[in-house]
Design goal:
Keywords: Transferase. GO terms for molecular function: glycosyltransferase activity. This is Glycosyltransferase. By secondary structure, the chain is α/β, with parallel strands linked by helices. It folds into two domains: 193 residues, 3-Layer(aba) Sandwich (Rossmann fold); 180 residues, 3-Layer(aba) Sandwich (Rossmann fold), CATH 3.40.50.2000. The protein contains 16 helices and 13 strands. β11, α12 and β12 form a beta-alpha-beta unit.
């Protein structure tokens, strides 16, 4: 494929993590993003956050985008039928694209886009973070074993976001020659520029945190699958051992009162920031000494870990998190602990206190998971396609 390719993207709705990638891609190809759903502030906050909100960064600037007509009677992104866009084929045909990149297959809109591409002879790429650790019943695993290999081969190229994503495609016998690395990433430079020493001092002074306190940050929805209470209990253990640790929580959700109660019972100093919008996150990372992400296997990646590391903050993640083998497994930029092992989490926190990862090690690791590398992977996959031919 010569010249600047025309690439369509089909994705559920504007997402703060994807907008920077689309801006980067728009500098390398003729990009058009098609959204299946335009959520209201109430719809954005309806699931887990418990409050209406709108992102405080522009998610549509820097690239061309179109909101397709969603005919779903219950629009949303949590159920297969929540995004139903039968006109996706018309959009793809009118754009005369060289390829379409589809961000998964769990929504009806994604299946509609794939089927439209096959009918039109338009090469289809997929990028998602499914992995084999995701919770599933034995029956569901059996069905996937039969259905996934032929279904995934309908995609001409697959973009894996990390080690477990690649293992997923290989498990279902997707050809290696059609796999390309497009890592999960955030705008590392944007976060780093806003996580300054001055912001660390300002945030700590604002909350009354001593400069010599070791601050552990939990960032995310306060829901069971994220397991924030594991962090509270691990820190209470550290306090019982005489360690000067304190908890900073950036997030909202149904477990907020339980976190407060357990922290008070464990004599753990804690600071609840509530829901933090995008521009509020870098100062929170700067104020912390480590981020903990104890989530279960439903955490197919955990991009808060990328954000923290972009700010120079090491991470401790459970071995169920999709990002674990990529960002923290070797110990250079963080630690990995077994899911649900509160004592192990306490030991990992103590380990980071006693032997913290260096800023250089953190920077070197997160540099592998950048917008440029993610965009490079997409463009390599697109340019590998035989012109006028799908599934080669």
């Amino acid at each position: 494929m010569s010249g600047k390719p025309r690439l369509a993207v089909v994705v559920s709705h504007p997402i703060q993590y994807y907008a920077p990638l689309f801006r980067t891609l728009a500098q390398r190809c003729d990009l058009q993003v098609f959204y299946a759903f335009q959520p209201s502030p109430d719809q954005l906050g309806a699931v887990d956050f418990g409050k209406a909100f709108a992102w405080d960064v522009d998610l549509l600037d820097g690239y061309a985008s179109t909101f397709m007509t969603n005919v779903s009677t219950r629009p949303g992104t949590d159920d297969f039928g929540g995004c139903d866009t039968p006109d996706v084929g018309r959009h793809l045909r009118a754009g005369q694209f060289d390829a379409v990149l589809i961000f998964g297959w769990y929504l009806k809109s994604y299946r509609q886009a794939l089927m439209a591409a096959k009918r039109q002879g338009l090469p289809a790429l997929v990028r998602g973070d499914s992995n084999l650790a995701m919770p599933a019943s034995p029956v569901k695993r059996l069905v996937k074993a039969m259905v996934n290999p032929p279904f995934l081969r309908l995609f001409d190229r697959a973009l894996y976001v990390g080690e477990r994503s690649r293992a997923f495609y290989r498990h279902y016998r997707f050809p290696d020659r059609r796999l390309f690395f497009s890592p999960h990433c955030v705008d590392n430079d944007w976060f780093a520029a806003r996580a300054t020493r001055a912001e660390r001092q300002r945030m700590r002074a604002q909350m009354g945190i001593a400069e010599d306190a070791f601050v552990v940050l939990f960032a995310g929805k306060l829901v069971e699958r994220k397991r924030p209470l594991d962090a509270v209990r691990a820190l209470a253990m550290c306090r019982a051992q005489g360690r000067k640790v304190e908890l900073l929580v950036a997030g909202s959700g149904v477990l907020e009162q339980a976190i407060r109660a357990e922290a008070q019972a464990g004599d753990l100093p804690h600071y609840m920031l509530g829901f933090c919008n995008q521009t509020q996150m870098p100062p929170a990372y700067a104020a912390a000494d480590v981020l903990v992400l104890p989530s279960d296997g439903s955490e197919t990646w955990g991009l808060v870990a990328n954000e923290a590391m972009a700010c120079g903050t090491p991470v401790i993640v459970s071995d169920a998190c999709g990002c674990a083998p990529d960002l923290a497994a070797d110990g250079s930029a963080g630690r990995v602990v077994p899911l649900g092992d509160v004592e192990g989490l306490a030991a990992a926190i103590a380990s980071v206190m006693d032997d913290p990862p260096t800023q250089q090690a953190i920077a070197e690791r997160i540099a592998r998971y950048s917008l440029d590398r993610a965009a490079d992977g997409v463009m390599q996959a697109v340019r590998s396609l035989p012109q006028g031919q799908g599934a080669a």
